[in-house]
Design a protein that fits this description.
Elements lengths: L12 E6 L9 E6 H4 L4 E7 L5 H13 L1 H6 L4 E6 L3 H11 L6 E4 L4 H5 L3 E3 L7 E3 L2 E6 L2 E7 L10 H12 L4
Parallel strand pairs: 3-4, 4-5
Antiparallel strand pairs: 1-2, 1-5, 3-8, 6-7, 8-9
């Protein structure tokens, strides 16, 4: 079953490559429980098939990078990029794209979290294995408040501009 507006995000673990050691986070891949790091926060999430892929690198992630400050102005605490890649690949892609301080690069290396969301996409025939569908969502305190799912091979509704407009409508009613 695919996640939808009004649903609570499923429990699960995502991995992020941390470049600078901080209290509780070591350098390298760190595991984060979704239910803990979404609690009490407003998060814009873009989900996509893979790091370093053409549409993801040229359009999807760059749109969220460009509007990262606008999301912050709308009281969005964090922007996450979620993909079925390991934390090392997501960290390298984030470095290549200049995401530090703007977008958290969250790895779902085994695709387990994408499957829990009901958003897995089988690209085995194309040599890419099981990936994530392309989407964007606004999550407030772990609950989906806006959700945009693109059709396979398309990039039409999950863009940053669309989610930012939805964010303006949703967050005006949230204290």
């Amino acid at each position: 079953m695919t996640i939808k507006v009004g649903d609570k995000l499923p429990a699960g673990t995502l991995y992020e490559f941390i470049e600078d050691e901080t209290p509780g986070c070591t350098i390298g891949p760190n595991a984060f429980k979704v239910e803990e790091i979404t609690a009490g926060k407003r998060i814009a999430i873009l989900g996509l098939p893979g790091a370093f892929t053409p549409t993801c690198s040229a359009k999807h992630l760059p749109g969220f990078l460009k509007l990262a400050d606008d999301f912050k102005k709308k009281k969005i605490d964090e922007v996450w990029c979620l993909s079925v890649n390991d934390a090392f690949v997501m960290g390298a892609w984030g470095k290549d794209q200049g995401t530090k301080g703007k977008v958290r690069m969250m790895g779902d290396g085994s695709g387990a979290y994408s499957k829990a969301l009901g958003l897995e996409f089988d690209l085995t025939a194309r040599g890419m294995g099981v990936r994530s569908q392309r989407y964007s969502m606004l999550v407030v305190d772990g609950v989906v408040k806006a959700f945009n799912l693109d059709q396979p091979g398309k990039f039409e509704v999950s863009d940053a501009e669309t989610l930012l407009k939805q964010t303006e409508k949703v967050t005006q009613f949230i204290p």
